[in-house]
Structures are given as structure tokens and as C-alpha cells.
Design a protein that fits this description.
Length: 216
């Protein structure tokens, strides 16, 4: 499995995402201004502050040259993972339903949260079973998930009772596209892949992706 991790001006978690993916496969960085995805099998749009979060989080990154290729890659069935700011970018790009709004408390939150696996039938959660609990950190100011008008969304992870850090509707922490090949979550699995961090639960996301057949 070859992962490609997008780097925007303002990204700050792309190296951690690359290192996490490297635990289960090969991982390369993809520059925002390039259109070459370097033959990767999966794309990761990482956390950070792409283009300084100007206008609206993810709104400018959505128009980056590399994102044109990511959109085509996703539409062809390629697996795409968006973490935090990456989740925001994927919503702006129309690859995921709904939107991310400012936290209910209007403050930056940074702490471990517990999550419950709702859907283990995606390329990103196949190493899990429904009902599994995971501990993964969050760190964001704009992470309150707002359901699309029709309410039609494939929820993959929810915040466990008492762990919703941002007022997300329905305690939604992660969603997938209808086909399941695009996945966005506010928690940072790349920061929970080593026992030294207190949790290795985030590694399940990368291990799940590594089970996807190359070119599938």
C-alpha cells in the first residue's frame, strides 16, 4: 500500500500522518501545487491550517491543483482520508456531506476523547468491529459537524457519551461517502499510533487502509 499525504501551505500534521502511514506501508508527500499523485493507492488530506484558514476553513484548499486530482481519484473509487482540516477540505470539495462549524464553546479544544465505532464496513474501519471504543485526541476550533439538509449521512464514528468536545450534531465524529471510499474525521488518528502517546487506537485506521488491495 502506497499512501500519498497532501501538504498545503499551513499544514502542520502532514509529517505525523506520513509517519503513521509508514508503519503499515509506503508514504510520500504530495505538494498542493502539483497534479501528480505519484501512483498512490490511498490519499490522506491531513490536519492543520491550510492556506491559513482564510475565508473559511478548507475553502481555499479545495481549489488547489492537487485537489482536482484527489477529487477524480475519489470519484474513481480511490480511498481518501481527511483528518481534521482534511475533513473540512473534503466537505468543501463536495466529497463528503455536511459541514464543520465553529465549536459550540467557540474555543479551541485539545484532549483525548473516546469514540464508538458505528460502521466497520468501510476501508478505514475494517480492523474494527461495531461498538468498539477508541481513544484518539482532538485539537480544533471548527469541528462541530452539521448534518446536510436531508440528514442523509453515513456515520462511521460517534463521540462516546460525555465525550463530544464541540457540540457536533448527533455526536458525529466521522462520516463516510455513500460508497465508503471517502472518510473524514475530526479526531487525529496519526497522533495515537504509539504506546508513548497513551493510545494506539488510531493505528487501526491505517491498518484498515493497508488491507485495501492495491489499485482497488
Amino acid at each position: 500500500m502506497k499512501f500519498g499525504v497532501v501538504r498545503f501551505p499551513g499544514s502542520c500534521d502532514e509529517v505525523d500522518a506520513q509517519l503513521a502511514a509508514s508503519r503499515v506501508g509506503e508514504a510520500v508527500l504530495l505538494w498542493h501545487g502539483d497534479r501528480d499523485l505519484q501512483g498512490v493507492d490511498a490519499v490522506i488530506v491531513p490536519g492543520g491550517f491550510s492556506y491559513g484558514d482564510y475565508l473559511r476553513v478548507g475553502a481555499i484548499a479545495r481549489f488547489a491543483p492537487v485537489m482536482e486530482e484527489v477529487v477524480e481519484f475519489a470519484r474513481a473509487g480511490g480511498p481518501v482520508l481527511g483528518i481534521c482540516n482534511g475533513f473540512q477540505v473534503l466537505c468543501e470539495a463536495g466529497l463528503l456531506p455536511g459541514a464543520l462549524l465553529p465549536n459550540a464553546g467557540l474555543r479551541f479544544v485539545c484532549r483525548d476523547v473516546d469514540l464508538v465505532v458505528e460502521d466497520a464496513a468501510t476501508p478505514f474501519t475494517r480492523a474494527c468491529t461495531p461498538g468498539d471504543r477508541m481513544t484518539i485526541p482532538v485539537k480544533h476550533t471548527t469541528g462541530r459537524y452539521h448534518l446536510p439538509p436531508d440528514g442523509d449521512v453515513r456515520v462511521v464514528l460517534r463521540y462516546a457519551p460525555g465525550h463530544n468536545p464541540n457540540g457536533s450534531e448527533g455526536d458525529v465524529a466521522a462520516v463516510a461517502s455513500a460508497a465508503g471510499n471517502v472518510f473524514g474525521l475530526m479526531p487525529h488518528p496519526e497522533h495515537a499510533v504509539d504506546p508513548l502517546t497513551g493510545s494506539t487506537d488510531g493505528l487501526k485506521v491505517f491498518e484498515s487502509l493497508a488491507r485495501v488491495p492495491a489499485g482497488a
